[in-house]
Amino acid sequence: FLAMHHALENLVQQPQFILVDGNRFYKYAAVPHLCVVKGDGKYASIAAASVLAKTWRDEFMLRLHDEFPHYDWHSNKGYPTEAHREAIRRHGTTPYHRRSFQLLPRGEQLELFK
Q1: C or N terminus of the chain, fewer CB within 10 Å?
Q2: 8 Å CB contact between 11 and 29
């Protein structure tokens, strides 16, 4: 939510209405909003934003792969393949790993920033 608010703050033109893909959003200023579950299948603007976000993330993952090649980010794009989990077991996490996600199966010890 903080990232969405930050993006909204940096717009040249402030929105009159905000469509959100999902079921939760924290009110932004006095701008009305609508949360839409699976909104990318219902609104072209949400679908377009989803494509842009995915494209940006894929490019970002390629840059991360250059910095941390043993995590295989060039091919898994951050999704938890077994090879990626093995790299986490072997090398720990990076500042880019989202620790709010389950990076390893339950019960396995996770080392942070080796």
Answers
A1: C
A2: no
Other Cβ atoms less than 10 A from the Cβ of 39: the count is 19
Asked if 63 contacts 71 with a C-beta cutoff of 8 angstroms, the reply is: no
Count CB atoms within 10 A of the CB of residue 93: 19
CB hemisphere CA count around 18 (13 angstroms): 24
* Residue bearing tokens 């951050």: 78
Rg of the chain over CA atoms, in angstroms?
17
pLDDT digits (tens, 9 = 90+) for 19-62: 999 999 999 999 999 999 999 999 999 999 999 999 999 999 99
Tabulate helix, strand, coil % of the chain (nearest 5). 45, 10, 45
pLDDT score recorded for residue 17: 97
Residue 113 has pLDDT above 60, yes or no: no
Question: Who contacts 6 (Cβ-Cβ below 8 Å, separation ≥6)?
Answer: none
Which tokens in the block code for residue 70?
């043993």
